[in-house]
Amino acid sequence: MLKRFVDILVSLTALIFLIPILLILALVIRTKLGSPILFKQARPGLRGKSFNMLKFRSMTDETDLEGNLLSDEKRLTKFGLFLRASSMDELPGLFNVLVGNMSLVGPRPLLMEYLPLYSQQQAKRHNVRPGITGWAQVNGRNTLSWQDKFELDVWYVEHQSFILDVKILILTVLKVLKREGINQQGQATVTKFTGQSDGG
Question: What is the mean pLDDT of the chain?
Fold first, then answer.
C-alpha cells in the first residue's frame, strides 16, 4: 500500500510539473517524426495481464518499396536517439503509473509474445507491477544478456523494499545523466528474447 501511495503521489506531482516539457516534446516529435506522437503497445503487467504501455515515439514509420517497415536502425533518428539516451521517451509512462498499470520501480514490461517463453523462475517477474525503471536498469540496462536481466528482475521481486526502491530511483537518475547502457553493442535496439537459457 505504501508503494502504491508513493507511485500515485510522485507520478501525479511529476506530471503536473512536467506539463510544459511534455507539450514541447509532443510538438517537436510531431514536427520531426510525424504522428502519432505516442507509441502504444500491449505489454504484460501484474500477473501477466495485458495493458497498453505509453512512450513518446522515437522512430519514424519509413517503409521500403513493398510497404514493409525499415529496420529499427534506419528508422531511429538522431532526435530519437536523444529521446532514448535522456529517457525522455519514458515520461508518458507516468500516466501508466498513475492509473496503476505500472510502478515507478519494478521489472521493465517486455513483449506479450515472450510470455510462453519464460521459465517458471523467470515468470516471477510478473508477481509485481512492471516499472519505469528497475534493478536490471541500474545494473546494466540494455547491455545485459537476457539471462542476467531476468536474474536481476527476479532478485528484485524477492527482495523488494521501500529502501531498495529509493536506491534504484537515485541510481536511475545517475545512469540517465551518464547515459549508460542505452543500447546493446552493435544494435539500435535490444535483440529479441528467444527463450534460450543464455539469452540468445
Answer: 88
Q: Is residue 75 pLDDT above 50, yes or no?
A: yes
Residue 184 confidence (pLDDT): 47
Return all residues near 169 (Cβ < 8 A) that are at least 6 apart: 104, 105, 133
Amino acid identity, residue 117? Answer: L
* 93-129 pLDDT tens trace: 999 999 999 999 999 999 999 999 999 999 999 999 9
Sign of CA pseudo-dihedral 136, 142, 143, 149: positive
Distance, C-alpha 24 to centroid of its chain: 21
Secondary structure class of 52 (helix, strand, coil):
strand
Tell me which H or E stretch contains 19: helix 2-32
Tell which residue, 135, 137, 144, has the closest CA to residue 184: 144
CA distances from 16 to 13, 60, 158 (A): 5, 28, 33
Q: Which amino acid does the sequence have at 105?
A: V
Q: What's the distance, CA 145 to chain centroid? A: 16
